[in-house]
Amino acid sequence: MATLKKKVSEAKAFVLHSISWSDNSLIVNVFSREYGLIAGVAKSAKRPYSVLRPINAHFQPLLVSWSGSGELKTITKVETDGFYCIPERALMSAWYLNELILRGVAKEDPHEKLFDCYEDALLGLVSDTDPRIVLRRFEWQWLCEIGYGLDSAEPDFYDLKKEPELRNELRLNISKALNRSTLNVRENLNHLSKLIATRSHTEDT
């Protein structure tokens, strides 16, 4: 684990999760390239002219500054470092990537390679690459980074005929890595699929 500085300036990062705190502030989980997962308070970030306003955006490359040596940092400055336009149909896939990192990576433990893989995955979703290719590749990389990699050569992620078999194999290892707990995104997706199926059946009858 890296020794964390009391002040960090312009760290390359993405916001993975945020919740409201008081009327205008946020508590955020930020995935930074050099410092790993960081939790912080972004005071008044929801105000229209706040210098922390960019912290409201998920899936966007940011330069984040913070201070503090405790578990919860104080976000002091946020700047945009580009713009990614994730298609609406790919948002669930993007949230899935975020949850894998949040659930599988320890706080304040740098994973520079995984950060780069995450950024590449977002760019894949932006470029309209088949989400199955993007997700299987990232799942493979995520498992390797946290010590649950498969004992086999890296597959051809573009071979979609073999994708179902690969998906099942990867999901089995992901389940082991997460102590067989279910990911929230997957639960929500299953629930949504059931709602759509029920609605379609109702409309047909």
TrEMBL record:
<dbReference type="InterPro" id="IPR012340">
    <property type="entry name" value="NA-bd_OB-fold"/>
</dbReference>
<dbReference type="GO" id="GO:0006310">
    <property type="term" value="P:DNA recombination"/>
</dbReference>
<dbReference type="InterPro" id="IPR003717">
    <property type="entry name" value="RecO"/>
</dbReference>
<keyword id="KW-0234">DNA repair</keyword>
<feature type="domain" description="DNA replication/recombination mediator RecO N-terminal">
    <location>
        <begin position="10"/>
        <end position="80"/>
    </location>
</feature>
<dbReference type="InterPro" id="IPR042242">
    <property type="entry name" value="RecO_C"/>
</dbReference>
<dbReference type="GO" id="GO:0006302">
    <property type="term" value="P:double-strand break repair"/>
</dbReference>
<keyword id="KW-0227">DNA damage</keyword>
<comment type="similarity">
    <text>Belongs to the RecO family.</text>
</comment>
<dbReference type="Pfam" id="PF11967">
    <property type="entry name" value="RecO_N"/>
</dbReference>
<dbReference type="Pfam" id="PF02565">
    <property type="entry name" value="RecO_C"/>
</dbReference>
<dbReference type="GO" id="GO:0043590">
    <property type="term" value="C:bacterial nucleoid"/>
</dbReference>
<protein>
    <recommendedName>
        <fullName>DNA repair protein RecO</fullName>
    </recommendedName>
</protein>
<dbReference type="InterPro" id="IPR037278">
    <property type="entry name" value="ARFGAP/RecO"/>
</dbReference>
<dbReference type="InterPro" id="IPR022572">
    <property type="entry name" value="DNA_rep/recomb_RecO_N"/>
</dbReference>
<keyword id="KW-0233">DNA recombination</keyword>
